[in-house]
Write a structure and sequence with these properties.
- By secondary structure, the protein is of the alpha/beta class.
- It is 40% helix and 18% strand.
- The strands form 5 sheets. Strands 1, 2, 3, 4, 5 and 6 form a 6-stranded parallel β-sheet that branches. Strands 12-9-16-7-8-13 form a 6-stranded antiparallel β-sheet, with helices on one face.
């Protein structure tokens, strides 16, 4: 019998959903569902009655569970722990969205960052969902390191009563794609835990696989009943819900007018660093210091033209722009929609299906990992086309193997309070020669060469909850940001100036040459004069016979810096993760060990405690 809107308390969409669900249920599933709804109704009523009736209601729920067990139905635990490990905030947003979806279905959800969860409590859990990104060369993000270390230590318990699933975010252009998620998935399996659903590894365009994983884990948690399907639009809406007052997001960027585009480097510098100021007027977009600006770039027109000519394609031919059915000219597709500057193993594997080249097939053969890695490094789509010609593939088929052109994230270099309806960011133009051809950073050279004042850029705000000023404005702040890594600290100091913060501030800055490469020099000088910035230490590596970097300045000021730490100072690092951030971290450990009279292990524990207290935060890339 079909439900009708006219003779039920449900709306049209609910009736449609029920009419799809109910005929698919077995008799045992119907018994389970009726018992679960009855128990859920009793639980909801508990809060509105007195203690005696609460006890009676709780007993009734327990009796309902016993009835389910008696008819052979599995009792599905309604308690779920959702843990996230996130460097830029993506996994945290998705974890929050998943928690809301679970709560809507009656689950009791514990949501926490991995470093905010006490790992010795793992043994007590029944259902665990992990959402984690991979940072650097296959490493966990900062707030997942301690949890990762615990699982791989001798203290990790056997977890035979735990059910789990892992969602992993990554980038296929990196060798260790989604490595942290793979680590967690493998280790939990080794400890005896059972997978609720298979791990899902996501590339940069993650909406659809995330939605599929959401649906899979919710179905599994519901005892594999047919839970409502989750569309990619739900994931997109979850991200957009961060700011309820704006319609603009990662999937619907705002076209911001360029107000200023200035070169911060002096005459004679071998670098070009652009300071861009954009108008947010009419967008309702807002941000806090520490957040990032997502910018959708355009591919270099010369590279686009060379690819079309090498393949003998017609630039006006209509091709798909995406999986949504949107189409347009090939020239626009390669300029604005598809990534053409990065090669990945998945791309080459798909290209091999379209090519008759034996050389490409051989490059992808087992045992050729080192040759493949070497080939991919520093090459682009034009190299692939030229190196493995001839191709007989129509443009319409070829573009479907390309990745969506991803946005680039830049630390915001301004305070919204100081510059309402504006956002500033800093980008260093990347130009170099490789494999006999000039190469360009997609977004950096786009901003440097083809975005004059009056033009527009598609942008969105990416909130970063893991890089935030202390809530107490009297707390001392230490900022370490060489090169463009100094950008967020301009935002920090502008914000503190607007708030009238009284806490001390100390900036460590470095670049190559004092005369030509001192970014935002006049800003720092004014802030020093006005007392907004208490101390400034600089290192210009090419101005002395022996190269001096920010970590050397830190070591030279070790006693005073340690005194600041003992006073509760918060430490922030922004910039290159592979070299600078590692060297600065090592320098901080040396300062703590030397000035505090601590052992290496005790110094490490000191910094880990700072991290757990949100006193040591990094925005590194």
């Amino acid at each position: 019998m079909q439900l009708q809107v006219t003779n039920s308390p449900f709306n049209e969409s609910q009736v449609e959903l029920l009419n799809r669900l109910l005929p698919s249920l077995t008799e045992s599933q119907k018994i389970w569902l009726s018992g679960y709804i009855a128990a859920l109704g009793q639980s909801a009523a508990v809060a509105s009655v007195g203690p005696d009736l609460q006890a009676q209601a709780s007993l009734t729920v327990a009796e309902g569970v016993e009835v389910l067990s008696a008819v052979g139905q599995p009792v599905v635990s309604k308690e779920v722990t959702v843990l996230f490990g996130s460097q830029t905030g993506n996994c945290q947003r998705l974890a929050t969205s998943l928690s809301r979806k679970l709560e809507e279905q009656g689950f009791q959800v514990t949501l926490a960052s991995m470093n905010g969860f006490k790992p010795n409590g793992l043994k007590k859990l029944e259902n665990l969902l992990l959402l984690v990104s991979t940072h650097g060369e296959g490493e966990p993000p900062d707030n997942a390191r301690s949890f990762h270390e615990f699982l791989y230590s001798k203290r990790a318990p056997q977890l035979e009563n735990l059910r789990f699933s892992v969602l992993s975010l990554g980038d296929t252009s990196y060798e260790f794609f989604c490595q942290t998620g793979k680590d967690f998935d493998q280790r939990l399996d080794e400890l005896g835990a059972e997978r609720l659903s298979p791990r899902v590894d996501c590339d940069l365009d993650y909406d659809e696989p995330v939605a599929e994983w959401f649906e899979s884990v919710i179905n599994a948690l519901n005892g594999r009943l047919n839970a409502p399907a989750i569309a990619a639009e739900v994931v997109q809406a979850a991200e957009a819900s961060e700011s309820q007052e704006t319609e603009y997001s990662r999937n619907n960027p705002f076209r911001a007018e360029v107000l200023e585009n200035l070169n911060l480097n002096g005459r004679g510098s071998d670098r070009e660093t652009r300071h861009l100021e954009l108008s947010l007027e009419g967008s309702n977009l807002q941000f806090e210091p520490g957040d990032s600006l997502g910018v959708y770039p355009e591919n270099h027109p010369e590279l686009v033209k060379a690819i079309i000519e090498a393949m003998g394609w017609n630039p006006d031919e209509s091709v798909p722009f995406n999986k949504k059915g949107e189409e347009g000219p090939l020239l626009d597709a390669l300029s604005y929609h598809y990534e053409i500057t990065v090669l990945t193993k998945p791309l080459l594997e798909q290209a091999a299906q379209l090519s008759s080249s034996n050389a490409l097939t051989e490059l992808l053969a087992p045992g050729k990992q080192s040759e493949l890695k070497e080939y991919i490094q520093g090459r682009d789509l034009l190299d692939l086309i030229q190196d493995f010609a001839p191709w007989q593939t129509p443009a319409r088929s070829f573009v479907t193997i390309l990745r969506k052109l991803p946005a680039r994230l830049y630390s915001i270099a301004s305070s919204y309070k100081a510059n309402p309806d504006e956002v500033h960011f800093t980008v260093r133009a990347v130009r170099y020669e490789a494999h006999g051809r000039e190469r360009y950073g997609v977004c950096s050279v786009h901003c440097a060469e083809r975005v004059p004042s009056g033009s527009t850029l598609p942008i969105y705000i990416q909130q970063n909850p893991n890089f935030k000023l202390p809530t107490n404005p009297d707390v001392p702040v230490i900022m370490i940001g060489p090169g463009t890594g100094v950008a967020p600290f301009r935002s920090f100091l502008e914000e503190r100036e607007e708030l009238g913060a009284e806490g001390k501030t100390w900036l460590f800055y470095g670049d190559r040459h004092f005369v030509t490469d001192f970014l935002y020099q006049t800003d720092w000088q004014r802030m020093l004069k006005d007392g907004v910035l208490s101390k400034l230490d600089v290192a210009f590596s090419r101005d002395t016979d022996e190269k001096v970097y920010v970590q050397h300045r830190i070591l030279a000021k070790s006693q005073e810096l340690y005194e600041w730490l003992q006073q509760g100072a918060h430490v922030y690092i922004c910039g290159d993760e592979k070299h600078m951030a590692h060297d600065v971290h090592t320098a901080l450990l040396a300062v703590i060990q030397q000035e505090g009279g601590l052992s290496p292990d005790e110094a490490t524990a000191y910094l880990e405690t700072m991290q757990q207290e949100l006193r040591y935060q990094r925005d590194v890339y």
